[in-house]
Design goal:
heterodimer; A: about 700 residues; alpha/beta; seven-stranded mixed beta sheet; 20 helices; 28 strands; B: about 130 residues; alpha+beta; three-stranded antiparallel beta sheet; about 10% strand; elongated
Chain lengths: ~700, ~130
């Protein structure tokens, strides 16, 4: 390996690194604005100047200079200090000194680096330039006078988000960053623009002037807006969540998060259930916990177990599902389901319902078939990974399902099951690509598996996967892209109908036909709550959404930021989320509510603390004992695809993505004003058609 | 009358009344009905000046004295307002006693006693209400 000297210290490095990366390896910090590890190198801020020998007798931009063997790199010489001071002085010439009213104040790269590497005064006497604000949609606020033209946002939009709608126009003093047409960026990742902006030019519009970064209490947590389980940091001030930011997790979200994850914050404050309610004479009236439990326990005792149902929603943590499962099983109830969409998954090996390749594993793929999935809407960061791999030029994609702008090119193979059959039978076109691929991948959308003919479709997909050898002993390319954060956890727990039990859609039908006396909704809102007949509906949840409106008893629970919990993402990765704030009003953590209800129902659950519940959960379901672990795509031996589903004839209905409106998929998101605005702007807008 | 004998906050007490009336001349009365007196001699004075007194009309509260009489009471002016009245500027507001503790007391913006809406604070949330 080549060697270089950094400030006199010799260091070995991998060939191909830049001088900046080598200096970082040696533990030297190099100031930078335009350089970002995950974006292409621009080299236009000039802040990373270092002295390199041998080389021209002038400072060099280290981010864009390849390191060479025998190089001597000086990062703290007088020449470097003078050069950095000069660059900083030029940057500050046109930067307004409005830090006291700037939302970036306190977490601003320019502030920090001006303190570290700048001069203490300015010699500039002339007027500063001013730049007009740009409109970038409802999420990003611009103060373009603060912009230092690092072009990180331009590169992010073009490379990661796949929305090449930003750019720089003008030269010299007149250079401006703009979205040309002053329209909102068509991307689910726009919030990251504010994260990568090193100054306060791009900030978060919904949170403008709401907080200072140093006032906030930071809690590491896990996102539940989609099934990816992105790593997030929940920043709270007192009892209120002020913002949600991404954390680095290379396996899932790298350092980005989607807009729904980030801007759902105001949904946590609206439409909150903060006290129990009981329906009396057709109207919901406030009640105490004791009254609510007594009402439910009375109904549970009176009803036969066959006439009781339990449905879990999309945002539940594993602990609350485990507590509900234990309680209702002890009551003899078999009508238990966590698949409110009516998915056919759940029987068979665990691999059949996982995203086995893992999200990071997508970077090894060379052929991907998307079946009924629109990853942009169902998991924006899966889409970003696919785009990343596609940009490397090694990935070919095929789509069966909806035609959509996925930010990469793909071959469109058809709309429904017939196209899949045709693909199995053919041996040219995309079938040839799949056959030739060393790491072929199927990504199956949750919508495909939540239809009346899902059994047959699953079987068909299993056959297709076998045909193209998607699962081999050393490669598992079978992936289900779930949309519900609780789904894999529920399936891992066996939160599915017991012997003779009804599935969620069957429970709704039975309730409508008067064959169900009690229906317990554990945060389940995505079922047809209008058609539950005369059933006594109990809703345990956080927001006044569909379930609460129909409920006969409402039990106020805790949202995902308000309880510690285990969530299993679509890869099967068990992740621990922490509590950032406390539940609102009289609301309690879900497992504790179920524990108290069990006492009233006369079937006391055998745990008094979350630790006891967790240890029981992990003892009964060992997969939960390994936090942050996934087997990965290389261990697929023993996974039999032929056993999936049931042979039958699939209907001709085209595959559809289960997410029709990306911004409004769950009760918390539906309570958010910001996301409602986004939905009105993006989801209901007709797609732009290029005039070509 | 019983008030006057047993309490000391409903106007002057009997003792004060007798000693002031016996030793002082009536000087004048302000718009609130408080009456002002000045001792006939400087006997009992702390500093050689003739003592000046006020007998409150009703509840004894020093803030009921308007600024012109306040000035005279504290020897800022030699002559009482009856002899040398204040020139009232058009922008001057009429004197108001201290209203703290009364229903008319000042309530700052955002006070729930003001009856209006409280400004939004951190941690406030919108609770769902049925129907």
């Amino acid at each position: 390996m080549p060697k270089a000297k950094v400030n006199g210290k010799e260091i070995e490095f991998e060939p191909g690194l830049t001088v900046l990366q080598v200096a970082e390896l040696a533990g030297e910090e190099i100031p930078r604005f335009c350089y970002h590890e995950r974006l292409s190198i621009a080299g236009n801020c000039r802040m990373c100047l270092v002295e390199v020998k041998p080389g021209p007798p002038k400072p060099q931009a280290s981010c864009a200079l390849p390191a060479a063997d025998g190089q001597e790199i000086l990062t703290a010489s007088p020449m470097v200090k003078k050069a950095r001071e000069g660059v900083m002085e030029f940057l500050l010439i046109n930067h307004p000194l409005d830090c006291p009213i700037c939302d970036q104040g306190g977490e601003c790269d320019l502030q920090d680096e001006a303190m570290g590497y700048g001069r203490d005064d300015s010699r500039y006497q002339e007027n500063k330039r001013a730049v007009e604000e740009k409109y970038l949609g409802p999420l990003i606020k611009t103060v373009m006078t603060r912009c230092i033209q690092c072009t990180r946002c331009v590169r992010f939009a073009a490379e990661i988000a796949g929305a090449p709608e930003m750019g720089m126009i003008g030269r010299g003093e007149d250079a401006e960053i703009t979205s040309y047409l002053e329209t909102a960026l068509t991307s689910e990742l726009t919030g990251n623009l504010a994260d990568i902006c090193p100054v306060g030019a791009l900030t978060h519009k919904p949170w403008a002037f709401n907080y200072r970064p140093w006032e906030l209490r930071k809690t590491d947590s896990v996102d539940v807006m989609d099934a990816l389980g992105s790593a997030i940091r929940v920043d709270a001030r007192g009892p209120e969540v002020m913002r949600i930011l991404p954390r680095v997790n290379e396996d899932i979200n790298e350092e980005w998060i989607s807009d729904k994850t980030r801007y759902v914050v105001d949904g946590l404050l609206r439409q909150r259930l903060d006290r129990p309610y009981i329906r009396q004479g057709g109207k919901l009236v406030e009640a105490t916990w004791g009254q609510a439990f007594a009402a439910i326990a009375g109904r549970l005792r009176a009803a036969k177990p066959e006439r009781v149902g339990l449905i879990a929603g999309d945002l539940q943590d594993a602990e609350s599902m485990k507590a509900a499962l234990d309680l209702f099983r002890s009551l003899g109830v078999a009508n238990i389901d966590c698949r409110q969409d009516g998915s056919a998954l759940g029987a068979g090996p665990r691999e059949s319902w996982l995203f086995n390749t893992t999200i990071a594993g997508l970077e090894q793929a060379d052929a991907v078939l998307l079946v009924g999935a629109n990853p942009r809407r169902e998991g924006a960061l899966v889409n970003a990974r696919l785009r990343k791999q596609w940009l490397r030029g090694k990935l070919q994609l095929g789509v069966i399902g909806e035609v959509a702008d996925l930010s990469f090119e793909y071959s469109y193979l058809g709309a429904g099951a017939a196209s899949l059959e045709r693909l199995i039978g053919s041996d040219d076109g995309f079938a040839k690509t799949l056959n030739a691929a060393s790491a072929p991948i199927f990504i199956v959308g949750a919508g495909v598996l939540a239809r009346s003919d899902s059994g047959a479709l699953l079987n068909l997909l299993g056959r297709a996967a076998q045909t193209f050898k998607v699962v081999r002993d050393d490669w598992n390319g079978w992936n289900v892209l779930h949309t519900a954060a609780s789904r894999v956890g529920g399936l891992d727990l066996g939160f599915v109908p017991g012997p003779g039990g009804l599935s969620a859609p069957e429970m709704v039908q039975a309730a409508n036909a008067g064959e169900l006396d009690v229906l317990f909704l554990l945060g389940a809102d995505e079922i047809d709550t209008e058609k539950l007949g005369d059933a006594f509906v109990v809703y345990l949840g956080t927001h006044g959404d569909a379930g609460a409106h129909r409920a006969d008893v409402i039990l106020p629970g805790a949202a995902y930021t308000e309880k510690p919990g285990l969530y299993v993402n679509t890869e099967g990765r068990v992740q621990l989320a922490n509590r950032a704030v406390f539940p609102k009003g009289e609301a309690r953590e879900d497992w504790a509510i179920l524990r108290a209800l069990s006492e009233a129902a006369g079937k006391r659950l055998p745990y008094d603390s979350l630790e006891q519940l967790r240890s029981r959960l992990m003892a009964e379901h060992p997969t939960f004992g390994r936090i942050d672990y996934v087997p990965g795509p290389t261990k697929a031996a023993g996974f039999d695809l032929s056993a999936l589903g049931a042979p039958g004839a699939a209907t001709e209905e085209p595959f559809r993505s289960p997410v029709s409106d990306y911004y409004l998929t769950n009760p918390i998101a539906r309570a958010s004003v910001t996301l409602a605005e986004c939905s009105a702007m993006f989801s209901r807008r007709a797609p732009a058609i290029a005039a070509e | 009358m019983l008030d006057k004998i047993f309490t000391w906050w409903n106007g002057a007490t009997i003792g004060a009344l007798l000693s002031i009336k016996g030793s002082s001349n009536f000087v004048g009365e302000d718009e609130f009905g408080n009456r002002y007196f000045e001792a006939r001699t400087n006997r009992g004075s702390y500093d050689g000046r003739k003592r000046r007194y006020v007998l409150y009309n009703g509840y004894a509260d020093a803030s009921k004295v308007p600024p012109d009489w306040h000035g005279w009471l504290h020897y800022t002016f030699e002559e009482p307002p009856t002899v040398q009245p204040f020139k009232v500027k058009p922008w001057e507001k009429p004197h108001v006693p201290n209203l703290t503790g009364t229903p008319l007391a000042y309530r700052p913006k955002g006070s729930i006693l003001r009856g209006g809406e409280r400004a939004r604070a951190t941690g406030d949330y919108e609770a769902w209400k049925p129907e």
